[in-house]
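Lab notes, practical 5.
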Amino acid sequence: MTDRDNAVFNTIRQPPNLRSGLADTLMAQIESGDLKPGQRLPTEQAIMRTTGVSRTIVREALATLRAKGLITTRQGLGAFVSNDPNPRSFSIIPNDLQSIDEILRVLELRMGVEYEAAGLAALRRTPEDLDRMQDRLDALDKALEEGGYGAQEDYAFHRSILVATQNSYYGRLFDTFGDLMVPRQWARLDKMTAAERKRHAARMRREHHAIFAAIRDGEEAAARRAIRTHLSKSAARFEELRDASTSS
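Output from the prediction step:
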């Protein structure tokens, strides 16, 4: 490892969220040019020594960079910054969602996208769009009534809103993420009492039906309010989970 490599990696400090923090630090150094195309990364052992994190954390951070196309590995030689390290497309992969703080960032992104999409859907939806949304809503209701997470059904309902914008880029954007946009691994339904699960399902149904009703009735402002309310309440729920986990 060269002196320059040491200088770059000596700037890494142990982040609060080790896995995503290390990946974010490396990505920032690649994007800024501190780590240049074709440059070899320090060994796993060197990164461990500099950052104080475990080998598992280092490997998972490097796996995230490989999945994003930012680094490549060469047998027996190690990891190198890709010759074209600029991501060709944005994506969210499972390793990105290892903390509630990351989930909250995804919800923030969704709010920006879906707030506008809901308004457009209210103005542009067709009878076919409404039929599709109703089918997705019925499937979500059924999944929740049966005590399931309803993640795939939830994703399908929200995607049907994007389709109703008549702008294919909205749907294609969601397709990039898949149902990771609805991170069921953090829902903690298994920790709820029967009464809590019932209240959760009722809230989900109520919020989704409000979104659908506003779009169905062509109420642009109401549709935007309904989607913002829904995603804001989801974010509040995750914040409560985060605070409970840090205080325990």
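Observations recorded by the TA: The longest strand covers residues 71-74. Residues 3-7, 10-17, 93-97 have pLDDT under 50 and may be disordered.
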